[in-house]
Write a structure and sequence with these properties.
By secondary structure, this protein is mainly beta. About 15% of the residues lie in helices and about 40% in strands. It contains 2 helices and 9 strands, in the order ββββααβββββ. Strands 1, 2, 3, 4 and 5 form a 5-stranded antiparallel beta sheet that branches. It has a 4-stranded antiparallel beta sheet with strand order 6-7-8-9, with no helix packed on it. A hairpin with a 5-residue loop joins strand 7 and strand 8. It is globular, with a radius of gyration of 16 Å.
Length: about 120
């Protein structure tokens, strides 16, 4: 009895230890460890409707539009890595993190769609 559903939309790049959450009708990745072992604060977003596309829907969309509509959008990177993304907030909200000198911060940031920035 497999209760999990495999989605046909892959992650934007190879990653592990992903800091992910939902915000409104979107799925957000706000930091991860890369395949090269590095830590990244890159932020990606995709609509839940595009994330949960079946293989058949994906094939139909790709063949009729001539392009893949199920792509992740890259947002402005979060200010720090190892942040905590708070679930079910709209707009996206992140807490704390570490800077490049490994100093821990207790800042709270909200994503601003208009300016494409964390404030």
């Amino acid at each position: 009895d497999n209760l999990w559903t495999i989605v046909s939309t892959p992650l934007p790049r190879p990653m592990s230890f992903i800091n992910a959450t939902t915000s409104g009708q979107s799925f957000i990745i706000a930091g991860y460890d890369g395949a090269d072992g590095g830590r990244y604060n890159d932020t990606f977003i995709i609509g839940m409707d595009k994330l949960l596309v079946t293989d058949q829907q994906h094939s139909l969309t790709s063949s009729t539009s001539g392009e893949d509509d199920n792509k992740w959008s890259e947002l402005r990177p979060s200010p720090y890595w190892d942040t905590t993304a708070i679930p079910n907030t709209s707009p996206p909200l992140i807490l704390g993190g570490q800077d490049d000198q490994r100093k821990v911060h207790n800042d709270i940031y909200v994503y601003d769609d208009i300016t494409n920035s964390w404030r």
